[in-house]
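G., before I forget:
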Amino acid sequence: MTPNLDFAKNGGLVPAVVQDHQSGEVLMLAYLNPESWKLTLETGIAHYWSRSRAKLWKKGEQSGNVQEVREVRVDCDADTVLLRVRQVGGAACHTGYRSCFHRRLEGGGLVTDGVRVFDPGQVYGGSR
Amino acid sequence: MTPNLDFAKNGGLVPAVVQDHQSGEVLMLAYLNPESWKLTLETGIAHYWSRSRAKLWKKGEQSGNVQEVREVRVDCDADTVLLRVRQVGGAACHTGYRSCFHRRLEGGGLVTDGVRVFDPGQVYGGSR
């Protein structure tokens, strides 16, 4: 059985907060459509809907940095999901940082203080 | 200066992941519009846009459980924000639980395993 989420509220997509299951670091936010939600639950590997490419997206399909889902949590309104994952490769962000939230606001500007794990030019062949 | 976020991508609203600044627990997801983003930065107290009530929402305005913002992080695409907060009163969820993500998926169903901090009937006078 796939638990129902409220996909209607946000135009067919439910945001998924993705958190490292051990450190608690928030790695990224992605979006689920009904198909990617089902696939994520069936396979235990995070699948999302890519808004920019308008297609189903198995996270890490190109880089190999897949996300093994260790725990799934659903919020009070069933319109947001929290995935606690093991991030293979150690980096969730396509820029090579461990987290997409690698920039901190300070004095009106953004300071990059995240950990960079890989060089995206090598992983994606300069396509990004 | 208020750093620019990509409000256009999601119909004028940017999701904000809210995390306890000490424990790392993810407390909730809420939405920012330009006005609430500005107010959050100016006051250091989390303000959001309530989609259900279609109005500016100072989190905790009724319950007193405001969120003191200790750190603001912006993701790689500037379309999502991470607020690391001190949750006054210890509960972020209007149901009285510490986190809105107080339910875990298990065996196709949802199991409530979160910590309940207050009785919503007493705090909101039974209005919810």
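The longest strand of chain B covers residues 67-74. The mean pLDDT of chain B is 94.

More on Monday.
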